[in-house]
Amino acid sequence: MKLSQFKYTLPKELVALYPQSSFYEETDEDGNKVTVRVTRPDECRLMVIHRKSQTIDLFKQLAEPETEKKKKSKSKKKTEEPAQAFIQFKDIVKYFDEGDTFVFNDTKTFPSRLYGTKEKTEAKIEVFLLRELNRENHLWDVLVEPARKIRIGNKLYFDDNMVAEVLDNTTSRGRTLRFLYDCDYEQFRELLYGLGEAPLPHYVIDARENHHATKQDLEDYQTIFAKHEGAVTAPATGLHFDKTLMKMLDIKGINNAFITLHCGLGAYHKIEVEDLSKHKMESEEMHISDDACDLVNRTKSEGHRVCAVGTSVLKATETAVGTNGQLKPYDGWTNKFLYPPYDFFVANAMVGNFYHPSSPLLMAEAAFGGYDLIMKAYELAVEHKYRFGCYGDAMLILDD
C-alpha cells in the first residue's frame, strides 16, 4: 500500500476540540445564569460497518408513538418513511451477546505537557515529558519546542521552585532534563504533575482559542478504567465508555479483558515514505497477563466475539498472538505497524475513532475492515459531518 492512498480532505471544523457534551443553564450563588458543560462520551455517533456484507449503517430506526400510527392508518396519503436518527455509541450494546468479550487498554496518561521559560532570554518553551529515566536524580526524557533554542547546559524555569537543566541532546527535539528540586520523590512528582497539562494532541490545542488544555481535560482525556501509568497519549477509543455503559455491558453478560500498551507519539508523527512497507513505527511498551489471555482464548474457542477497543489493542494482541492463533502472555515492546492487507488472528470485531488523513491509526482500521470499505466510511463521515479525532465520533467494525 502507498501513503497517498490514505489521503482525503478533512474540513477543519469537523475536528472535535472537546468531547461530546450536553449543556445546561444553572444559577450560581450570586444569582447569575451560567452554562454548565456535562461530558456525555457515550452519546457521540457510532457508525456500524459490516465487512462481510460490505454495508455501512449510520442510522437507527425510531419507533413511532401509537397515536401517530393510528393517524397514518386512517389517512389515505402515502405512508412516509420511518423517522431516523444517528446511531449513538451507547447503542453498541445491541450488537453484542452474552459471552462476547471486549478487550480494553488500561494504560494511564499523566499531565505531561509543561510550559517553562529559558534562562536569560525568558523565551517560552514547551516541555513534553516522555518517560522518567532516573527516579532518584529526577532525570526525564523529554521533547522540547522550539528545539533550536535549547542546548546542553541551558536551564529552564517553570515556577519559583522548579528548575530543570539540559543534560543531553537525544534527538532533534529530544533532550534529557534533570529537575533541580531538593525534596522527597513523592513531593517532587506531585509538584511536577501539578505544573503539567493533559497531553492532548497538537491538532486539538493548536485549534483552541487559548491553545491550552483545561483542568477538565485531565478527566476527559483519561479512560475510566485507566490503571497503569505510562502513556503520553490516551487510547482515545476507550474514552467513549463511561460507568453506565460498562454496567450495561456487564448486565448483558459481556466480558471485559484488560491489556496494557503505553501509547506513545508515533501515531502522530508524519510518515515520510510513500511505500508503507518501509515505514518504521516507534516502539511502545506493552503487557498482557495470563488472565487476559485465558478469557480471550476461551471466548474464541466458544465461538463468541472478541472486540478490540482501539487500534492499540489491535497492535498489542497481534503482537502477542502465537502461531496457533492463541493469545499469549507478553511483557516487552512492540513496533508493529498494521496496514492493509493484513490477516488478524485474535479480534473479529473492533471499535475505532475517525482519524486524520495519512494516520497510522486510519491504516490499522483499513487493515481490519478492508481498505475500500473503510475509505467509503470516511467519505460518508465527512458528508454527514461526523466529528474526527480523539474527542470525536466512533466506528464499530463487525465481521458479518
Structure characterization notes:
This protein is α+β, with helices and mostly antiparallel strands. It folds into 2 domains: 1-110 and 199-400, 3-Layer(aba) Sandwich (QueA-like), CATH 3.40.1780; 113-196, QueA-like (Thrombin, subunit H, Beta Barrel), CATH 2.40.10.240. The chain is 20% helix and 28% strand. The protein has 9 helices and 21 strands. The protein has helices at residues 66-74, 185-195, 202-205, 217-220, 243-251, 290-301, 311-320, 360-369, 371-383, and strands at residues 21-27, 33-39, 46-50, 55-57, 59-61, 84-86, 101-105, 107-109, 113-118, 124-134, 139-145, 155-157, 163-169, 174-180, 228-231, 255-261, 284-288, 306-309, 330-334, 349-353, 394-398. The protein has a 9-stranded mixed sheet with strand order 4-3-21-20-18-7-16-17-19, covered by helices on one side. A hairpin with a 4-residue loop joins strand 13 and strand 14 (174-180). The radius of gyration is 23 Å and the shape is globular.
